[in-house]
Structure formats: C-alpha cells, structure tokens
UniProtKB/TrEMBL annotation:
Lineage: Archaea, Methanobacteriati, Methanobacteriota, Stenosarchaea group, Methanomicrobia
Name of the protein in question: ABC transporter related
Keyword Transport: yes
Domain of life, source organism: Archaea
Family membership: Belongs to the ABC transporter superfamily.
Keywords, comma-separated and alphabetical: ATP-binding, Nucleotide-binding, Transport
Gene3D superfamilies noted in UniProt: P-loop containing nucleotide triphosphate hydrolases (3.40.50.300)
GO molecular function per UniProt: ATP binding; ATP hydrolysis activity
Record domain ABC transporter: where: 2-227
SMART domains: AAA (SM00382)
Species, as recorded: Methanoregula boonei (strain DSM 21154 / JCM 14090 / 6A8)
C-alpha cells in the first residue's frame, strides 16, 4: 500500500505490505513523519490510499468502508471530547450513537469509567479536565464499545505514569477478544502491550515481529547507554555503537564486554546505564539517526 499526499515529493507510505492475525495488540513505532498515523487513518477508513489494498477480517477497507466502520472504533491523535459534556455523558452518547439501548449503554459507560478510575470526575464538564484526563475520556468512549478492531493513535500522550499504567491494565483485558492497533513513541508501552511490533521509517515498514523476533536481528544482547559524551572515545573489543536519545552513545555488545566497559566508565567517572537489550535499543539500531519520539 502506498500513500502520496498532494504536493509532497515523497510517499507518506511506500509499498507497505504485511499480514497479521486480527487478535491481540499490534503496535506501530517510528519517528516523526514515519507514516504511523497515515497507516492507521487508511485502515480506519478515514483516508484513501493512493494505491494498494487492505483487508480487515476479510473485508476490503477500500471498497467496503461502511462494513468496516460497523466493526471498528478509533481514537484519532487530534480528537477532543465535547467540552460541555461530562465523561459519563460522552461515553453514554457515543454508545447510543453506535446503536446500543439506553440501559445497556448506561451500564457499559459506568463500568468503563470505573475501570479507568474516573471517580467523581465522571460527572464534571470535560472542559474543566486536564489534557491527560481528556485523553482518558476518549479512551473510555472507545473501550466501552464492542468493536472488533480498535485503533488508538498515541492514546497515552499527556497521561501521567499512573494513569498510563491503569490504561495498560484495561487494554490487557480488551486484547483477549479484540484486535487493537496502537501507535506510540513510548518504548516501554510497546514492550508491555505488543504481541506484534511494526517499525516504520520514512514510509517503509523496516521491521515486523514479536519483541523476541526483533531482538534476534541484533548480534548482541546487552546495551550500555552513556549519559554524557566522553572526552576520549570508548574502545570496543566487541560490539557496535549507535546514536541514542539526544545523540548520546549507545553501545550494543555482549554481556562480558558490557561489564568490562562498565568498569572502565566507572573509573573515568562517566555516568551510564547497563541493561539487556530492549525495544529502545532495537529502535536505535534500526534507526541510525537516534531519537525515538514521533508520530
């Protein structure tokens, strides 16, 4: 599938192709402008592809959009709750709009707001809520539905760490019988939630697999992240160095070499962290330019 926006010299999506079972959580990661939001909008029938096809549970996204919309729910990145409604009213009205009866809609609205720990804030006006709480209202609206497929475009942006973990807990339940497509620039979130991870770079899908499968793309199993740039270069006997956040060095190497480097850095008074390779390290390896942030 390819998408080229009018006036753009390069594709937003460039011949992206993959097949996945429609269950669990599929997480898309990538830097700014990598194509995550474009892909989600096409799959959710909010945007037409320039060329190519896509199907969800055997239904063609391009030729049968109405059937797709009956089975999906989406929280777009730019969405905001209606300011003069309360969270309870927002969820209730959304469920009524999707065709539920009043009694069932009210029950489901109450249940999801309780799971997301709204408390008294369930009955205050949305315009009085913080940005993070407004995002929670949108998530509550979507999670209360019975949609087979849920699209969440950076859903936890603006949430505090506690609220983010509460959302993860709810999503762990949702994933059991529904398919969730989620974009994020929080590597920890992707590690916690993803059954399958897709890595986008400049509109191309450069990696796809489980976390363990992506780990196997690296030759090394340990990561040493420097928290400052040393005056003298670090000498490696085994491993390779890539750019991490803020262009700080990240050394990917074996366990033994990692601890040898750690001793050397400690003697020189250089601050660092040392851990088994995680998704952030894989991201740095696949994206030689560094930083993880982006849409």
């Amino acid at each position: 599938m390819t998408k080229i926006y009018a006036g753009s010299p390069v594709p937003a999506l460039n011949s992206v192709s993959f097949t996945l079972p429609a269950r669990g959580v599929f997480v898309l990661i990538g830097r700014n402008g990598s194509g995550k939001t474009t892909l989600v909008r096409i799959l959710a029938t909010n945007l037409e592809a320039t060329s190519g096809t896509a199907t969800l549970n055997g239904i063609d996204v391009m030729s049968e959009p109405d059937q797709i919309r009956e089975r999906i729910a989406i929280v777009p990145q730019e969405a905001r709750p209606v300011p003069w409604m309360t969270p309870l009213q927002s969820v209730l009205s959304y469920l009524l709009w999707r065709g539920l009866g009043y009694g069932e809609a009210k029950q489901k609205a109450g249940e999801v707001l309780e799971k997301l720990k709204f408390g008294r804030k369930a009955r205050v006006l949305n315009r009085t809520l913080s940005g993070g709480m407004k995002r929670k209202v949108l998530m509550a609206m979507i999670l209360a539905t019975e949609a087979d497929v849920i699209f969440l475009d950076e859903p936890t942006t603006g949430l505090d760490p506690l609220a983010r973990r509460e959302f993860w807990e709810v999503l762990q339940e949702v994933r059991k019988d529904r398919f969730v497509v989620l974009t994020t620039h929080y590597m920890e979130e992707a590690e916690q939630l993803a059954d399958t991870i897709g890595v986008l770079e400049e509109g191309k899908l450069i990696a796809l697999g489980t976390l363990d499968e992506l780990r196997k793309r690296l030759r090394y199993n340990y990561s040493v992240k420097l928290l400052s740039i040393p005056e003298a270069p670090v000498i490696l006997t085994e491993g390779e160095m890539v750019k991490g956040n803020h262009d700080l060095p990240v050394i990917l190497t074996t366990e033994g070499e990692a601890f040898r480097i750690a001793q050397e850095l400690s003697r020189e008074g250089i601050k660092f962290t040392i851990n088994p390779v995680g998704l952030e390290d894989i991201f740095f390896y696949l994206h030689p330019g560094g930083d993880t942030g982006g849409r």
